[in-house]
Amino acid sequence: MAAHPIPMMTVRKATLDDLDAIAPLFDAYREFFTKAPDLDVSRRFLGERLERGESTVLAAFQGAAAIGFLQLYPLFSSWYAKRQWFLSDLYVDAAVRERGVGKRLVGAAIDFANETASRAILVELPFSEPHLTRFYTHLGFDKDAVFELYRFVVK
Predict the structure, then answer these.
(1) Nearest partner of 9 among 68, 53, 55, judged by Cα
(2) Which of 9, 41, 61, 118 is the most exposed place for a label (fewest CB within 10 A)?
């Protein structure tokens, strides 16, 4: 049985004023994947993205407390001559998981993509997290039938 939704939750585009509320969540997200927490690095990185307008961060709040966030980076499709968004990060505070926060954040990202006349939202899913495939598929994301991603890591 699913837990009850979060009462009085708001989801909105974050600003630099929200940095102190979101940075601990961003650090917890980074720690999950890198095993190396560093709140100063996380705060600086996220602050630079917000300050420079290099990403769009959507955040879920319960009152003044941030309980989740999603970060989108802009991409462009030369084929379709349109903007696309790369959904890089999605994190929900462990205390409120399974209560619809992630779904609301992704829904807000889809609304944002529509508002910005974008072609698509792309998301890269780690093999170590198969539940994410089910989560995104349930929300309408499909596996790409045209592209397989390869990566060159700069040393």
Answers:
(1) 68
(2) 41
Helices (H) and strands (E) in the chain, counts: 4, 5
What is 9-138's CATH topology? Aminopeptidase (3.40.630)
Check: CB of residue 67 under 8 Å from CB of residue 9: yes
Q: With CA atoms as reference, report the closest residue to 120 among 131, 101, 136.
A: 136
Q: Which residue has the higher pLDDT, 78 or 145?
A: 78
pLDDT of residue 68 exceeding 50: yes
Domain positions in the chain are: 9-138
Q: Which of 98, 96, 154, 151 is CA-nearest to residue 126? A: 151
Coil vs helix vs strand at 94: helix
| C-beta of residue 91 within 8 angstroms of C-beta of residue 29 | yes
Mean pLDDT of 10-37: 96
